[in-house]
Design a protein that fits this description.
This protein is of the alpha/beta class. The chain has two domains: about 220 residues, Aspartate Aminotransferase, domain 2 (3-Layer(aba) Sandwich), CATH 3.40.640.10; about 120 residues, Aspartate Aminotransferase, domain 1. Helices cover about 40% and strands about 10% of the residues. It contains eleven helices and twelve strands. A four-stranded mixed beta sheet has the order 1-9-8-5, with helices on both faces. The protein has a three-stranded parallel beta sheet with strand order 3-2-4, covered by helices on one side. Strands 10-11-12 form a three-stranded antiparallel beta sheet. Helix 2 packs parallel to helix 8 and helix 8 crosses helix 11.
Length: about 375
């Protein structure tokens, strides 16, 4: 059993993907070719955003967003400690300070009730993270941000395709940022990412920054990076987009089946999906104080599982200068200590999923638990 089944999708789409790749090879526009423009149009249409600017990775999309907002030395950017390091890494790379607020105990996203207290005169932006496939409480976050005239960047690396109050992830705030890393809900065959906004000026800056700050040939009004998406990845995304809506529905059903099958097991928490949310279940993650024993039981049956972000960012040595200690963010630490992600993809079949549920169910009921 595969943790994330990418092979089945390629078996379904392989011939069409190869045909798209062949077209790129024939026209030879390997960087920012016609496929890039086409996929940007389709992604913008999918999310309902005015602009989509594709870039080289999800990490670069966050970096470019902060650069476009002018974040730099002495600034502060508020985010959460339970996420992949990219979210805070890009803040520090620009010389700014990551400021953490804890996550909610239910959805594991930013606790919006703690946000306002973290804002100072140095705050330059807010980055809520749509963890594991569902969005944060974006209306409240946006309202607080508006009060202090702050931009909001939704880190939607794991939630592309999800909705909040009927609106698509990536079109919920000043900027939406996502990743097309292969294991993401909408993944290409290498690195890739995208930025979304309804702000014309920001979109223009995104486009400049991704080509070394170049407005036009040999004219660089701002600093930038080499952050372009290549045409081959765009071509692959175009084909995968054809089946993506169906995959989103399958992810929803598989997540529901997991939650129903694992319900009412003592000492085990299944994902809580907010009442205004849908989730694309980038990962299906449970919490258990007996994580290691459950993981061992799964391993004995050749079932892969992963403990994501088992050391939260405030306890990472690279951020030691922030002087955080164990206990500073109790819910982030709880999730980090207890989380276990199970096999998840649109192509996980019923037999495989039943096997996962049965192994966990029997493990939890063992006397030594």
């Amino acid at each position: 059993m595969q943790f994330i089944d990418l092979k089945s999708r390629h078996q379904l789409l392989g011939d069409n993907i190869h045909a798209r790749i062949q077209k790129v090879m024939e026209h030879g526009q390997f960087i920012l070719g016609p496929e890039v423009r086409e996929v940007e149009e389709k992604l913008a249409q999918y999310t309902g955003s005015k602009h989509c600017v594709t870039v080289s990775s999800g990490t670069d999309s966050l970096l470019i967003a902060l650069m476009a907002l002018g974040v730099g030395a002495g600034d502060e950017v508020i985010t959460v400690p339970y996420t992949w390091i990219s979210t805070a890494e890009v803040i520090a790379l620009l010389g700014a300070k990551p400021v953490f607020v804890d996550i909610r105990p239910d959805t594991w996203n930013m606790d919006e009730t703690q946000l306002e207290a973290a804002i100072t005169e140095k705050t330059k932006a807010i980055i809520p993270v749509s963890i594991f496939g569902q969005c944060s409480e974006m209306d409240v976050i946006n309202k607080i941000a508006f009060k202090y005239n702050l931009p909001v960047i939704e880190d939607a690396a794991q939630s592309f395709g999800a909705t909040y109050k009927g609106k698509k992830s990536c079109n919920l705030s000043t900027i939406g940022s996502t990743s097309f890393f292969p294991s993401k809900p909408l993944g290409c065959y290498g690195d890739g990412g995208a930025l979304f906004t309804n702000d014309d000026e920001l979109a223009e800056k995104f486009r400049w920054i991704r080509v070394h700050g170049q407005e036009r040939k040999h004219h660089h009004p701002i600093l930038g990076i080499n952050g372009r998406m290549d045409s081959l990845q765009a071509a692959i995304l175009l084909e995968i987009l054809e089946v993506f809506p169906d995959e989103v529905q399958k992810r929803h059903q598989i997540g529901l089946t997991y939650s129903q099958g694992l319900a009412n097991l003592g000492g085990l928490e299944t994902p809580c999906i907010g009442k205004d949310n849908t989730s694309v279940f980038a990962q299906y993650t449970i919490l258990s104080e007996n994580r290691e024993k459950i993981q061992q039981s799964l391993k004995e049956r050749d079932i892969p599982s992963v403990s994501y972000y088992s050391v939260p960012l405030h306890l990472q040595p690279v951020f030691s200068e922030l002087s955080h200690e164990i206990g500073d963010f109790q819910f982030a630490e709880k999730v980090a200590n207890q989380c276990l992600s199970l096999p998840m993809s649109p192509y996980l079949n019923e037999v495989e999923q039943k096997k996962v549920i049965d192994v966990i169910y029997s493990s939890v009921l063992r006397k030594h638990f």
